[in-house]
Amino acid sequence: MEGVSVNYYIGLSAILFIIGALGVLVRRNALVIFMSVELMLNAANLAFVAFSSVNNSLDGQIFVFFIMTVAAAEVAVGLALIVAIFRSKKSIDVDQINLLKG
Amino acid sequence: MNQADFQTLLPVIVLTVWALALLLVDLFVPKEKKWITALLAATGLALTIGISLTQTGQSILGFVREIKLDGIEITVSMVVLDGFSTFVSILLLFSGLMGISIAYGYLKRMGIERGEYYSLILFSIVGMMLMTQAADLIVVFIALELLSIPLYVLAAFANTNASSEESGIKYFLLGAFSGSFVVYGIALVFGATQTTAIAGVAAAASAGTANVPLMLAGSGLILVGFGFKVAAVPFQMWTPDVYQGAPTSVTAFMAAGAKIAGFAALMRVFSTAFPSIAADLTPILAVLAALTMIVGNVAAISQKNIKRMLAYSSIAHAGYILMAFVAFGNPELTNDAISAAIFYLVAYAVTNFGSWAIVISLEEKDGKGLALDDYAGLGKSNPLMAAAMTIFMLSLTGIPPTLGLIGKIYLFRVVVEGGFMWLAIIGVLTSLISAFYYLRVIVIMYMKDGEPKTTSESWLNFTWGTMAVATVIFSFIPASLFKWASEAVMKLF
User: Fold this and answer.
1) Residue B483 resides in a domain
2) In this complex, do B149 and A100 lie within 8 Å of one another by their Cβ atoms?
C-alpha cells in the first residue's frame, strides 16, 4: 500500500473505540453518552474499511453501510427516548434518572 | 435471489410482510377495537408457525457464494435453515403468541393500549428468528439490532410513566453500548480471518491462516456484547432496572425472547465459528457462568418487589444456561450441550410466561400489587392461581415434578461430563440458595393472611393455566422432548 501504513488506521480505530467506551462510562449526560456510542460504531467502521483494504475484499466496506443504517435507526429511537425523558424530568442527566434501584 | 434463498428465509419474510401490513391496517382499526390488531398479530404468528412446521427436517443454505482465503476455497452462505433454527424459531414464535395473549388485557387495563405494540413484537421476533438463522456475522449484527430496537421502544411503551421511560432509556443506552462491542468484535474477526462468514472464519482458523490474537480479541468483544444481551455477570446491571420499569407484558416477552435469541446466536457463533479457540474461551465462560449464578441468586434474596426478584432470577438462569457452553471445548459433548441448553430454554420460557402472567394478574394501576407481600392470602382467595404460582416457583427452583428440574439435570450432566465438577457444585449450591426466595413466595401465598386483588381475564387465565399444566406434564415425558431437541441440534450445520 502507498502512503500511510494500514496499521495506523487500525491503531486510530482502537483509540477511537476506547475513547468512546470511556465516554460512555464517564460522562453523565445521556446525549453525550449516546454520541460516545456513535463514536464506538464509527471506530468499527474505520476498522472495517482498513481491514477491507488489507484483505482486498469489499465485504468490509459493505458492512460499513449496514452499520451506518443501523446507527441511523438507533438515533431515531434514542433521540425520541431522550426527548421523552427530558419532557418529564427537564433533565437528561443519567444520575437523576434513578427511580429504579435496589 | 433464487428458490433456495427464498425457501430459507420464508418464515422471516412472511412475518416481516405481516408486521408491515399490520402497521398499516392498525391505522384503520378504531381505538376501542384494538382486539382486532391483537388477533391479526396472533394470526400472523400462527401462520408463521405453520410454515416453520412444514420446514422441519429441511436443511438449506441461503445466498451461497464461493470465497477464496489465502488459497482455501470454500462455499459459504449468509443465512441457513436447519433443524436448530427451525426448532428455536418455533419456540420464539410461541413466545410471541404468549406475549400477545398476556399483553392484550394488561395494556387495556393500564391505559396504554396502542396498536403499534403488536407490530413491534412481530418485528422483534423477526430479528430473533433471523438471529437463529444467521450464518454470517453481518446477519448476526443486523438481527441483533432488529430484535433490540423494537424492545427499546416497548420498554418505554407506557410513555409518560417515569419508570417505563427510565427503563427504556437505560435499556437503550446499554443495548447500544453492547451492540458496538459486538460490531467492533466482528471487525476484528474480519481483520483476523478476511471474512465475516461463520463457515469461512472456522475454515481460516482451522487452516491456521487466521491471526489468532486478533481473533481472540474479536471473539472476546463479541462475547461481551452478547453477555449484555443475555444478562450475564458482570454485564447484568441493567437487567433489574429495565425489567422492573418496563410494562410487565414487555418484561415477560423480553425475558424469554431476548434470552432465547441471544443464547441461540451464542451457540451458533461459538460452536461453529470458534471451535479452534474453544480451549481458551472455556475457562472464561465457566467463570462467567459461576459468577452469574452466584450474583443472580444472592441478589434476589433481598428483593421486596416481585418484578425485581424475577429479574434477578432471570440473571441466575442465564448463568445456568451459560454452564452448557463450557462443554464446547469437547467436540463429543457439543451436541449434548446444545440440546441441554435448548431444553433448558424451553423449560425457562414455559415457566417464565406462566409466572409473569400471574404477576400481571395481581398488578394494579400505578405500580401497586407488585410487592411480595401483596401475594399474602392468595392461597385462600384464589387457590387455582396460587397452585399455578407454586408450580412455577418449584420449576424455577428445580424441584420435582416440574420441567425446571429436568432441565437442570440435563445441564448438570453435560457440565460434569465436560469435566467441570466445581461448576456443577456451584450450580447445585446456588439452586439451594434460590430455593429460599422462590419458596418464600409460596410461604407468603399460603401462610400469610391478606386480600390480594386479582384480575381475571380469559387470555391471561388461559396462559398461566396452560403453562402450569405444561410445566408438570412435560416433566413426565422429558425423554421425548429432549430427543426432539437433540434431533434439532444434530442438523446444526
Assistant:
1) yes
2) no
Helix, strand, coil content of chain B in percent (nearest 5) = 80, 5, 15
* CA-based nearest residue in chain A for residue B300: A102
Amino acid making up residue B94: F
Whether residue B310 lies inside any domain: the answer is yes
Residue A3 pLDDT > 90: no
Q: pLDDT-based confidence at B493, cuts 50/70/90?
A: very low
Asked whether residue B215 is assigned to any structural domain, the reply reads no
B331-377 tens-digit pLDDT: 778 888 888 898 899 999 999 999 999 999 999 887 788 999 999 99
Q: How far is A85 from chain B (nearest CA, A)?
A: 6
User: Tens digits of per-residue pLDDT, B172-185?
Assistant: 999 999 999 999 99
Interface contact B184-A44, CB threshold 8 A: yes
Compare all CA atoms of chain B with the CA of A14 and give the residue at the minimum distance.
Answer: B184
Task: Identify the structural domains of chain A with CATH numbers, from first to last.
Answer: 29-89 (1.10.287.3510)
In a domain, B335, yes or no: yes
**Grid cell 393455566 — which residue?**
B465
Of A41, A57, A89, the CB nearest to B180: A41
CA B262 – CA B270 distance, rounded (Å): 12
Burial of A22 (0-12, 13-18, 19+ CB in 10 A): exposed
Q: Which of A30, A57, A74 sits opposite B194 (nearest CB)?
A: A57
Looking at residue A1, what is its pLDDT?
46
Longest C-alpha distance within chain B, in Å? 74
From the list B265, B385, B263, B278, the residue with the least C-alpha distance to B317 is B263
Q: A77 contacts in B (CB within 8 Å)?
A: 149, 152-153, 172
In chain A, which residue's Cα lies nearest the Cα of B162? A88
DSSP code string of B49-87? HHHHHHTTT--EEES-EEEEETTEEEEE-SEEE-HHHHH
Q: Which residues of B touch A101 (CB under 8 A)?
A: 241
Contact at 8 Å (CB) between B121 and B85?
no
Is A102 in contact with B303 (CB distance < 8 Å)? yes
CB within 8 Å of chain A, chain B residues 236-255 = 240-241, 244-245
- Rounded to two decimals, the ipTM of the complex is 0.95
Domain of residue B481: give its range: 280-493
Write down the pLDDT at residue B492: 55
Domain count, chain B: 1
